[in-house]
Amino acid sequence: REVEYMNGSVLTRFGALRARDGHPAPYDVKIWNIGNEPYGKWELGHTNVKYYVLKNNEFARAMRRVDP
């Protein structure tokens, strides 16, 4: 949803919402941050590196489907 909102066409659901919010042109975001130190024991739901990489790659594939 966030990728479509930021970079999607106004013909998409979330691109149209962005336009309605006053910014019809896509923001053209190129770099995204996925997660915030999910390996830290101080984080709720912390995980290990192996699982983080698995989920990171899953998120990246989903994001590229919306905005190649």
UniProtKB/TrEMBL annotation:
Residues 2-68 form the Alpha-L-arabinofuranosidase 1 catalytic domain. Signal peptide: none annotated. GO terms for biological process: polysaccharide catabolic process. InterPro entries: ASD1_cat (IPR055235), GH (IPR017853). Gene3D superfamilies: Glycosidases (3.20.20.80). Transmembrane segments: none annotated. SUPFAM superfamilies: (Trans)glycosidases. This is Alpha-L-arabinofuranosidase. It comes from mine drainage metagenome.
